[in-house]
TrEMBL record:
Keywords: Glycoprotein, Glycosidase, Hydrolase, Signal. The active site is at 190 (proton donor), 273 (nucleophile). Residues 565-624 form the Beta-galactosidase galactose-binding domain. Residues 41-360 form the Glycoside hydrolase 35 catalytic domain. It comes from Macrostomum lignano. One of its GO terms (biological process) is carbohydrate metabolic process. This is Beta-galactosidase. It comes from the Eukaryota.
Amino acid sequence: MNLIYLYAVLLTCACLASFSLAVQLDSNSQRSFTIDYDNDTFLKDGQPFQYISGSIHYFRLLPADWDDRLAKMRAAGLNAVQIYVPWNFHVPRPGQHRFTGSADLDLFLALAQKHDLLVIVRAGPYICAEWDFGGLPAWLLQRNASMVMRSSDPQFLAAVDEWMAVLLPIIARRLYSSGGNVIMVQLENEYGSTGQCDLAYIRHLYQLGRRYLGNQTVLFSTDGQSAGFLKCVAKERLFYATVDFGPEGTKSLNDTFAPLRAVQPKGPLVNSEYYAGWLDNWSGQHAQVDAKAVSDGLARMLAYGVSVNIYMFFGGTNFGYWNGANSPPLAPQPTSYDYDAPLAENGDTRYKYQLIRQVIINATGRQPPPVPPNSTVSSLGTVKLRRLASLLGNLDSLIVNRVDSKLPVAMETLGQYQGFALYGAQIPKGYDATEYSLRLAKARDFVYAFASSESQPSLGQFLGSISYSDSEAVLNFTASNSSGVRNLWLLVENCGHVNYGGDLQGNVKGILGSVTLNGAPLYGWRSYALDFDRLAARPLRSRRLAASAEAHKGQDAAQAAQASLYMGEFTLDKNNLTDTYANLSTFCKGQLWINGFNLGRYWPCAGPQVTLYVPGAVLREGSNSIAVLELLQAPCLNDSSCRVDFLAMPDIGLSRPAGESVGRLEYDRESLQVLATAEELPQLDDGRM
Ligand SMILES: *[C@@H]1O[C@H](CO)[C@@H](O)[C@H](O)[C@H]1NC(C)=O
Ligand SMILES: *[C@@H]1O[C@H](CO)[C@@H](O)[C@H](O)[C@H]1NC(C)=O
Ligand SMILES: *[C@@H]1O[C@H](CO)[C@@H](O)[C@H](O)[C@H]1NC(C)=O
Ligand SMILES: *[C@@H]1O[C@H](CO)[C@@H](O)[C@H](O)[C@H]1NC(C)=O
Ligand SMILES: *[C@@H]1O[C@H](CO)[C@@H](O)[C@H](O)[C@H]1NC(C)=O
Ligand SMILES: *[C@@H]1O[C@H](CO)[C@@H](O)[C@H](O)[C@H]1NC(C)=O
Ligand SMILES: *[C@@H]1O[C@H](CO)[C@@H](O)[C@H](O)[C@H]1NC(C)=O
Ligand SMILES: *[C@@H]1O[C@H](CO)[C@@H](O)[C@H](O)[C@H]1NC(C)=O
Ligand SMILES: *[C@@H]1O[C@H](CO)[C@@H](O)[C@H](O)[C@H]1NC(C)=O
Ligand SMILES: *[C@@H]1O[C@H](CO)[C@@H](O)[C@H](O)[C@H]1NC(C)=O
Ligand SMILES: *[C@@H]1O[C@H](CO)[C@@H](O)[C@H](O)[C@H]1NC(C)=O
Ligand SMILES: *[C@@H]1O[C@H](CO)[C@@H](O)[C@H](O)[C@H]1NC(C)=O
């Protein structure tokens, strides 16, 4: 504790609030967390201290599960946890602050303290984290798509200042020296990987940290461990520099840390991201890192005196639309952020967990609390679905914003920061063709094309899709003149803003350039922001949707292929509110909701992930609703195949080779208990809204 600082606080403040602050500071006067450079160690309350930490992201699980995961982390022998703070999760729209539910940072910090865990906070503004836009709010792109992110661009700094003025005081109240558990705070992340080195920006962040967190708090940076990454922030020596690297076999740690020592000769050695697993991307193979290699590497680092954070110790889930993407080439991450971590996506303690726990016991000689049991996972059975609403038939209920202009406008311009936008244009009258070639100059990220006629504008014909991985954005289709094709519709899916790599700059989504049909540009566009979440969240019984008439009549292949919402209902008793996994293997690509909670994107046609994790906390006693937005091909040509099974086992692609499609398999799971059938679903109103 810096006594001069304490007196300064006492002298300058003479109000009641400062009195209580002074009392608190006084009673915590023994609490300090500092760096002893001479002895290459941290000092906690004046004593040498080595932290053994694990990463957990409070926003990647439900608050109902925070306690279980933290208890298991403490029981592994960890004495700290490391968290990121995602700016965009806390400020989803300009001026709209969220600190409740999964965003209740203060509660999470308090809970960690209850479990006797210190906290290392990585406060951003940029966090990477395989999180949408690396934690930056996409509304920055709406203000100015050319704004230079992660730089001293005054527009960016102004937004950062506003956010840090909200965030850092929350952290300041929970600093270790103030009686809380936060020992260190990181600003920015792996800035050395950007290839830019804007020191005015780095100094600005440092000053913000000092202004709100005081002169004593350990402020640190993290970069890759090789010299190239350390020549910007680490070399500047404002922040205490740490590095990140995974298991390296028997490579000498002295060699690994040599580049860091070259720029920061003294102080405790820290590995801020020791990779216990790795990230996945759609169409890739599920990454796995050998448990023995991880625990051996950990044992060596602990023996060498390194303070370690295991990344991830618990990975969790990218619910909703929160996954990020690496680029180039664009590689969006799947919904599961299991990360092959010691704790599985549902909190199960893996073999890797047991090994790590034993290594920590051996290294510290301290016996942690007993390991809590795995939580229950149930195979809840099968829920039958039926097609309830087509995209084009329900635009009235979906549209939240519309802009008419000569050329399409970006999603962010529409105020649509995640999810979907729809673009509509008319094919000019007298257009003389049956073979069409549609070409998009630039579109992000995944486009579904439909045509509709003048007489039946709401009945779309699915023309095909264009993926971000296609070499050119061209779609050829045939439409007979006699069917009167007049409207072209392009549904565009934002698959996650880039979170890592050069393409982070200007990463706007939607139709971004000209659209041509047989070489001639199409003008006169209607750009719509769509809100599927609102529709999916409505209770089934009160739903009045236009497509219900179609649903009663049965479905032909064209309708089944059109982007549609499929819904079902099932009943659970209070003993069945356990975790489970939804098997989407017979669907192809879309989004899943239960009781209005957006569980994330599914895409078994790409893999590696096939099932989606359903936390027990989203289930309810009594009636539950399920909604599936299928965009490419629903298995719903007949009632028996239009269903979702809830399983006791995940399938995130453990054994499948990269790129192996698993979509549209046949069902043969008749043994599962049927929770509800389409016939039992409530009758729907046929009328339009
Ligand atoms: C903190 O450091 C700044 C800059 O070095 C200095 O101006 C300020 O007086 C210090 N504050 C305290 C309370 O020591
Ligand atoms: C730490 O360093 C100081 C000064 O270099 C020395 O006097 C002290 O003995 C060291 N403490 C330990 C525990 O090594
Ligand atoms: C947008 O940002 C760029 C880069 O900072 C700047 O040059 C430009 O003037 C800004 N445009 C507007 C309209 O503010
Ligand atoms: C350890 O690394 C330093 C450079 O950081 C080097 O000077 C020293 O010789 C190395 N020591 C051993 C034992 O390898
Ligand atoms: C996606 O994952 C695969 C591993 O399955 C990897 O080979 C590939 O490099 C990843 N792609 C990108 C762009 O990160
Ligand atoms: C907990 O779950 C993991 C992974 O599912 C399994 O390997 C482990 O054996 C389970 N532990 C216990 C005590 O059942
Ligand atoms: C822990 O130490 C014991 C006793 O020395 C040893 O048998 C065991 O292999 C060690 N475990 C690990 C995971 O290092
Ligand atoms: C629901 O819970 C009861 C009591 O635990 C159990 O017998 C039953 O099998 C469960 N049903 C399902 C579908 O898991
Ligand atoms: C398509 O319809 C237009 C009138 O809208 C007509 O001029 C043209 O000949 C028709 N083309 C074909 C191939 O039928
Ligand atoms: C689409 O049609 C154009 C013109 O007919 C042709 O050149 C092109 O190869 C086709 N592209 C694809 C992807 O089929
Ligand atoms: C139901 O549809 C599936 C494809 O979705 C098909 O394989 C199956 O034969 C159909 N069953 C009946 C009875 O039509
Ligand atoms: C998911 O359903 C498919 C199709 O019925 C089935 O082949 C697959 O085994 C199921 N997945 C799991 C993990 O049971």
